[in-house]
TrEMBL record:
PANTHER family: PROTEIN YCEI. The keyword Signal applies. Residues 1-27 form the signal peptide. Residues 25-179 form the Lipid/polyisoprenoid-binding YceI-like domain. InterPro entries: Lipid/polyisoprenoid-bd_YceI, TTHA0802/YceI-like_sf. Keywords: Signal. It holds the Pfam family YceI. This is Lipid/polyisoprenoid-binding YceI-like domain-containing protein.
Amino acid sequence: MNVFKKAVGYSALALTLSGMASTSLLAVEKLTFTASLMGEDFQGGFSKFNKNFTFDAAKPQAALLELQVNTASFFSGDAERDELAVGSEWFAASSFATAIVKGSLAATTVQQQYQFNGTIELKGLIKPISFPLQISKTSTGYHYQGEARLNRLDFNVGTGEWTDTSTIGNQIKIQFQFDS
């Protein structure tokens, strides 16, 4: 099997989380993940997700976020890799069609910096997730930017021969930016 195919699940999980800061009132402008394959970085995304995010700068602790990601909408620019990613060893999209991220914000001591605290449910497993989220006022609303990291094997993304982290790294980085 082509080594690039092994990177599929790692990529897909990153994208799942990268979409978590998008909202029903916000247009996603950038939603990417970075994963490693044989020590080299690569990127990809998800094309379908539903989101609900409420934010009031006067009451950031009241903010709520929920993102439902269609795991079958994984894309990486390689059709063969994309097909493998939705298969049973990676996202198992036929059995686990949706990944869910939900949580709230906590203010920090840094201006316009918040901490997202919540959970991610992927392949039937629920794990805590926390990451910094920067929210800044723009002339038309808000700009949201963040980065999260997680380990794909915590969610059984990449089973069997794909658990070898020397081929596909375990940690994935999700980056996102969008405006409201």
